[in-house]
Amino acid sequence: MSDLPSGQIGWLGTGRMGSALVRRLLAAGQDVTVYNRTKARAEPLAADGANVVDRAADLAVAPVVFVMVGTSENLLDAVLGPAGLLADEVAPGIVIDLSTVSVEASERVRAGLADRGARFLAAPVMGNPRVAAAGKLTFAISGPPDAAAEIRPYLEVLGASARYVGPGEVARIVKLCHNLLLGTVMQSLAEVTVLAEKAGLTREAFLACINSSVVGSMFTRYKSPALVNLDYHATFTTIGLRKDFDLGLALSREHEVPMPVASLVHQIVQSLVGNGFGQQDFATMIELEARAAGLELVTENADVPDGLGPEPTSGP
Question: Is residue 97 in a domain?
């Protein structure tokens, strides 16, 4: 890991993901000042050593400011709005946005920051708050390569991999394609898991085999406890996934790329929201699949590893 630069870091947006990432910087000894539109969501970070401020513009004195918000509109408001990061005369040196937003919103923010002499990096995260807490997030980075090199030490603290993918907004394309794949993989995993259970296996046994096979992945492993024990506490809400599918499929239409499988999954995600699962984790895809198969799911109350902890050591 590279040595971290000294100096204050600003952080705008302390939801589930933002808070997990701020705590990683604080644990690494960094001086972090945070702002959240709902201040009560930022205040718990004060106990970990963060300085909580009342205005987004109070962060602008920091040379580096990270942004982690929910939507394109949130990003525009948080940076360019009348109560946003640039509301005062001062502007930070580099702004790094970790959110999943549209290319168009990112372009507007980049232009607004450039007018104030600030450099902008799109660095959307791939993973969820549990993955963030385990230090296993990945980042796609786009924008000025010199700025990307400067902030790389921070990303090495925040996650496991940070890849520079090019100029401008191309990191946004990586993230939207990633989340289209995420949703389609989750739906496929729900389908085969329901098939396996209805044919006589436990979900625990089936997923243990999948996770140790060639198609197993960090994703299938960290979703296995939710599928086995029907724990749908949100790491990524169904409404959040629907928003990303909206953006990703809009991108596909812009570039005239047919996406029949992703389009079908989009409708399944909409069905989840319509069935009341909008604020729960998108692992609830297994619930709709089970209903369609006439299968009543019950928790297996099993101790299922999520693959995010230290690798087990072999015995003597």
Answer: yes
